[in-house]
Design brief:
- By secondary structure, this protein is of the alpha/beta class.
Length: about 400
């Protein structure tokens, strides 16, 4: 499992240039329901907001130690000194990290030990001004961002910025399996193919997801979109064609944040075929959206991460999965990729339910993080000849 730095008490949207501002850091799991069990040093730095900056990697000031987080003092407000050299009217982001070396504010999806430390966080911009609304009455922030490194070719890097809500809405946070599956995809793209030596399902995954040929891919339960954003970035390097698509689906409530994250990272996508397309797909609706049914010859891959937290939704999920599979000809069934972290043993009944529609899963990887339940990566093989109405 992974741990995340976030704000139990976030900073205000505006602060006075003189004096300090107060925050209450939090170190917990992805759903913020399990606090970190131990002591964790937290460092702070500042990132100047420059509206004219085009670089996707935010620069930060030298990190300074802020506090040592412990459960016993989890609700304590911590004063944070303002940026040095601050001028009236400037905006900065507050950055909280677990160390001060290198790029501590970046989550490296290529790291073999990803998640061994709690993930860093960036606040939204804080306006430092003594004018207008009084700083004491300024609204508290309701969003945070995290930045992820995706290595590309020839030593180049892409940096994804993914926004989350600080509310408890489940579809507005990055979940463990989203990061774990994204990390696995990056590793798949980085690892050279080994003909005759790789697991057959890894070979299938590489061909379905990262081939230079056009590919049609759909993600179910995308949430903030991190998996599709990673996939679009990787395919922007691999793909030579302009056909194909990445459909990024979830409920209507997830669309505003999902659309923002796609737009905010738009410069990373080489064409419309690699830029994720947000789309409402409700598993409870028996009929697939028209945009999905319009995909000729079906999908090359169906991707899912952390879709198992609600076992009551399994019949609808399996029916949706079956409908998507049957869009493809029997001679070319899609690859099914699942990122999964166990939260309840009953969730594993999904594996038996998918056998009824001809999908058999095999585990091909994992990301352990800081311990506890690992993120597992499973690939589903679709058997032909199974009725859609099973």
């Amino acid at each position: 499992m992974f741990y995340y730095i976030s704000f139990l008490r976030p900073p205000a949207t505006q602060s006075y240039p003189s004096g300090s501002l107060s925050v209450t850091p939090q170190v917990a799991n992805d759903l913020r329901t399990e606090p970190f069990d131990g002591a964790q040093e937290i460092y702070y730095s500042w990132s100047l907001v420059n509206p004219n900056r085009t670089d996707s990697l935010p620069s930060i000031t030298a990190p300074q130690k802020l506090t040592v987080w412990r459960q016993s003092s989890a609700y304590k407000e911590i004063p944070v000194p303002p940026p040095q050299g601050l001028r009236e009217g400037q905006s900065y982001r507050l950055v909280l990290t677990t160390h001060g070396q290198g790029r501590p504010h970046i989550i490296n999806l290529a790291a073999h030990d990803i998640g061994i430390r709690p993930f860093p966080v960036l606040s939204m911009p804080i306006l430092f001004s003594s004018r207008g609304r009084s700083a004491s009455a300024a609204e508290k922030q309701e969003r945070i961002e995290r930045v992820y490194r995706v290595p590309l070719q020839a030593g180049e890097n892409a940096f994804l910025t993914v926004r989350e809500q600080t509310s408890f809405d489940l579809d507005k946070k990055v979940w463990d399996s989203g990061i774990g599956l994204s990390s696995w995809l990056v590793h798949l793209a980085q690892s050279p193919a080994q003909p005759g030596e790789e697991h057959p399902e890894i070979v299938r995954a590489r061909e379905a997801l990262l081939s230079s040929d056009s590919r049609t891919i759909i993600e179910l339960g995308a949430g903030t979109g991190i998996v599709s954003l990673t996939m679009g970035t990787l395919r922007s390097i691999a793909s030579k064609g302009k056909d194909g698509c990445i459909l990024t689906t979830d409920l209507e409530s997830a669309m505003p944040l999902l659309e923002h994250n796609i737009s905010a990272n738009g410069s990373l996508f080489s064409s419309s075929s690699t830029r994720p397309r947000p789309l409402v797909l409700d598993w409870d609706n028996e009929k697939l959206p028209e945009e999905v049914r319009a995909i000729e010859s079906g999908f090359d891959a169906i991707v899912m991460a952390d879709v198992t937290y609600n076992t009551a939704s399994f019949p609808s999920l399996v029916r949706t999965l079956s409908s998507l599979i049957h869009l493809s000809p029997p001679s070319r069934p899609p690859l099914v990729v699942l990122g999964y972290k166990e939260r309840d043993p009953a969730e594993r009944t999904l594996w038996n339910m998918t056998k009824d529609i001809g999908v058999t899963f095999e585990q091909v990887g994992e990301r352990k993080g800081a311990g506890g339940q690992a993120v597992e990566v499973w690939i589903g093989r679709c058997q032909t000849g199974v009725s859609e109405n099973v």
